[in-house]
């Protein structure tokens, strides 16, 4: 029953992600706004995570996880594909933080532009999957590996060091980058006020840029808090297990299911925080489907009367003006 609930939840979340991605793709700012483009890639990554989690849940609920078999190889593959998708999601969040940090400089830094480019994110996507699937291949060739479908597999020390260690590093880098971005924004506010030497148009442009920066930082704050609450409990509990050699199955499943918290809340953050997506969402959900019948008669108005009178042909009149 729990497996069916998780599958239904993941399928629903996948639909929400697709809806959020379509709404974001329809916004006019997607082609111009780099922050929107990164948010779009993050939504796609979370949607892929939902599909992988559904597949793993189906395998674990249709086979005996305590017996050896071909389904154990499936669990082994998805035990590495899921962390790869999570690490790619963390990479996108880190790039969004670096992009916001770069926006605090008067002249954008070339290094930060390179680190937040599509090429850099593509290389990071490939490196993360090669990194995780390399361990998967080594585990497939090893005959003395624990059963991957069992709860002890993803809490062993080698798995924690290889998978949860990089996740914790990503979360730490995201937090540090975000703190530096906030510090730079507060520092810029205490600089000498230069509005007297600026034109009114330049002042308005600065106000709009500052407001846009604040909105993006609030959105990014929500994403970072959700990411930390999703990733850190599993990492901390894994370290606790290796220190005390005592595993609780219920807590282990709860910390693993917390990994869904990030893709669960991310699309709702975008829907309620980004104005363009919020407007499209409201229009889709609350627009009226009522249409006025074409055969209904309306009372004549002043506009219709004037238009009717302009179409009436008047008789020719003789001009009474004399020519000189």
Write up what this structure looks like.
There is one protein chain. This protein is mainly alpha-helical and 324 residues long. It has helices at 2-26, 34-62, 70-102, 110-115, 118-141, 157-189, 200-244, 249-257, 261-273, 275-286, 302-310. Helix 1 (2-26) packs antiparallel against helix 2 (34-62) and helix 7 runs antiparallel to helix 9 (261-273). It is globular.
Compute the number of helices. 11
The number of domains is: 1
CATH hierarchy class name: Mainly Alpha
Strand content: under 5%
Q: What is the distance, rounded to the nearest whole angstrom, between the alpha carbons of the first and last residues? A: 103 Å
Largest sheet: none
Share of helix, binned:
over 70%
Model regions low in confidence, pLDDT < 50 over at least 5 residues? 192-196, 288-298, 301-324
The CATH topology is given as: Rhopdopsin 7-helix transmembrane proteins
CATH architecture: Up-down Bundle
Order of helices and strands: HHHHHHHHHHH
Task: From the alpha carbons, calculate the radius of gyration and give it in angstroms.
Answer: 29 Å
* Morphology call: globular
Structural class: mainly alpha
**Using DSSP, what is the number of strands?**
0
Mean of residue pLDDT values: 75
- CATH superfamily label: Rhodopsin 7-helix transmembrane proteins
């Amino acid at each position: 029953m729990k497996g069916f609930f998780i599958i239904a939840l993941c399928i629903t979340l996948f639909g929400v992600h697709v809806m959020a991605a379509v709404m974001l793709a329809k916004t006019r700012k997607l082609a111009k706004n780099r922050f929107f483009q990164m948010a779009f890639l993050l939504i796609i990554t979370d949607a892929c995570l939902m599909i992988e989690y559904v597949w793993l849940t189906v395998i674990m609920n249709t086979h005996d996880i305590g017996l050896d078999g071909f389904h154990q190889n499936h669990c082994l593959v998805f035990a590495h594909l899921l962390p790869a998708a999570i690490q790619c999601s963390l990479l996108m969040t880190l790039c969004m933080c670096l992009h916001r940090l770069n926006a605090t400089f008067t002249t954008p830094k070339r290094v930060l532009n390179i680190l937040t480019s599509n090429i850099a994110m593509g290389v990071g996507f490939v490196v993360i999957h090669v990194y995780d699937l390399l361990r998967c291949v080594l585990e497939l060739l090893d005959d003395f590996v624990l059963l991957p479908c069992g709860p002890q597999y993803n809490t062993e020390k080698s798995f924690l060091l290889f998978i949860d260690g990089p996740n914790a590093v990503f979360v730490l880098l995201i937090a540090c980058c975000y703190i530096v971005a906030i510090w730079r924004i507060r520092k810029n506010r205490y600089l000498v006020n230069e509005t007297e030497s600026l034109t009114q148009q330049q002042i308005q442009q600065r106000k709009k840029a500052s407001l846009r920066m604040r909105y993006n930082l609030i959105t990014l704050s929500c994403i970072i808090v959700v990411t930390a609450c999703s990733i850190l409990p599993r990492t901390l509990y894994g370290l606790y297990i290796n220190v005390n050699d005592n595993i609780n199955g219920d807590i282990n499943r709860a910390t693993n299911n917390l990994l869904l918290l990030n893709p669960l809340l991310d699309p709702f953050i975008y829907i309620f925080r980004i104005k363009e997506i919020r407007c499209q969402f409201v229009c889709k959900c609350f627009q009226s489907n009522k249409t006025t019948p074409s055969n209904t008669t309306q009372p004549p108005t002043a506009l219709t009367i004037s238009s009717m009178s302009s179409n009436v042909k008047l008789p020719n009149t003789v001009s009474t003006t004399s020519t000189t």
